[in-house]
């Protein structure tokens, strides 16, 4: 499955379809139990491998919004779409406040967020889809704005899957914040201990 596919299959404990069979080899034991959902960017190999593993794909709304943020100062449609996506985040913050006010925790908090998403994010997602469908034909294939629109439309099921449950993230910002020091530090640490 291309760059990253082999590594992802290893993490998920899936066999490598390109590997040559070894006589009398012990079958690979799954390194991880089955995931129900996983969030990844738009790299197509992830779709293939996650489908093999029976994993539902989630897409990050921060990444989805990024393409419109680049043009929102100059393009009214980009601003309208970016603002509509921002409403999803306001809904998440309102859900956080409702959970806090109710002093809900555990399953009760998950259920409350799920209900909040169905009642508020569901209709907002319908509006975002309408805006994307309406804007798409106005931009030429290959233009940056069209790429931003198509990025979301081509992965619509993965972008909207988070509302199916209250324990799924709307984005992967927490994970990216966690690994950021490692990614930024890589170049800085490269020469530590070197005499050069």
How would you characterize the overall build of this protein?
By secondary structure, the chain is mainly α. The protein has eight helices and two strands. It has helices at residues 5-12, 44-53, 61-69, 76-101, 106-135, 144-153, 156-160, 173-189; strands at residues 37-39, 56-58. It has a two-stranded parallel sheet. Strand 1, helix 2 (44-53) and strand 2 form a beta-alpha-beta unit. Helix 3 runs antiparallel to helix 4 (76-101), helix 4 runs antiparallel to helix 5 and helix 5 (106-135) packs across helix 6 (144-153). The two termini are 40 Å apart. Residues 25-33 have low confidence and may be disordered.
Topology:
Elements: H1 5-12, E1 37-39, H2 44-53, E2 56-58, H3 61-69, H4 76-101, H5 106-135, H6 144-153, H7 156-160, H8 173-189
Parallel strand pairs: 1-2
Percent of sequence in beta strands? under 5%
Provide the succession of SSEs: HEHEHHHHHH
Measured distance between first and last alpha carbons: 40 Å
**Helix run count:** 8
């Amino acid at each position: 499955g291309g760059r990253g596919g082999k590594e992802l299959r290893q993490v998920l404990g899936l066999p490598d379809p390109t590997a040559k069979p070894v006589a009398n080899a012990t079958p690979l034991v799954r390194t991880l139990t089955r995931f129900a959902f996983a969030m990844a960017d738009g790299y197509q190999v992830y779709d293939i491998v996650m489908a093999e593993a029976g994993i539902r794909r989630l897409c990050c709304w921060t990444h989805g919004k990024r393409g419109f943020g680049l043009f929102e100062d100059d393009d009214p449609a980009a601003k309208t779409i970016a603002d509509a996506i921002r409403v999803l985040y306001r809904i998440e913050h309102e859900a956080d406040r409702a959970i806090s006010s109710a002093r809900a925790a555990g399953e009760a908090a998950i259920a409350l967020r799920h209900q909040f998403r169905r009642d508020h994010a569901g209709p907002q997602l319908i509006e975002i889809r309408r805006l994307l469908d309406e804007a798409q034909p106005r931009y030429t294939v290959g233009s940056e704005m069209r790429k931003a629109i198509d990025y979301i439309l081509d992965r619509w099921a993965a972008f909207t899957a988070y509302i199916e449950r209250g324990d799924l993230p709307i984005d992967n910002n927490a994970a990216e914040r966690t690994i950021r020091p490692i990614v930024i530090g890589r170049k800085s640490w490269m020469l530590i201990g070197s005499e050069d």
